[in-house]
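Thread: quick sanity check before group meeting

JM: Hey all, I'm pulling together slides for Thursday and realized we never actually wrote out the predicted structure for the chain we discussed last week. Dropping the sequence here so it's in one place. If anyone has concerns about the input, flag it before I start.
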Amino acid sequence: MLGGLIAIVVIGGLLLGPLLWRVRYDRRMERALAIRAQVAAALFRALDGESMVAVQVEPSSRWRAGRVVLSAPADWQWLLELAWSAIAAHVPADYEVVVKPVAAARRAPVKEDFALRRAA
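JM (edit): ok, ran it. Output follows.
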């Protein structure tokens, strides 16, 4: 009797555990996407249209706070200061704002005195 009850509890936990975890994850993702929409709309209004600033939102978990990551190409880093000040009021208290400038890609130096071969 007790063995059967323990088996039912263990099997029920194996079936319901992942389902409950997925429901909680989906709710966190839904909240993160809603925050991303609010931040993107605030950024759109502040910069008068689309910009080179990318917005990425990572949902919070039990062990860390959520993140709103702003990034822009190297030549457009001045937009990050405008973007940060525009979205600060729209980020919830349990989320942190991360400003991440993207470094310019390094290019190999080009030799100026190269000779072109003739195609035969």
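AS: nice. The radius of gyration is 25 Å. The mean pLDDT is 84.
JM: adding both to the slides.
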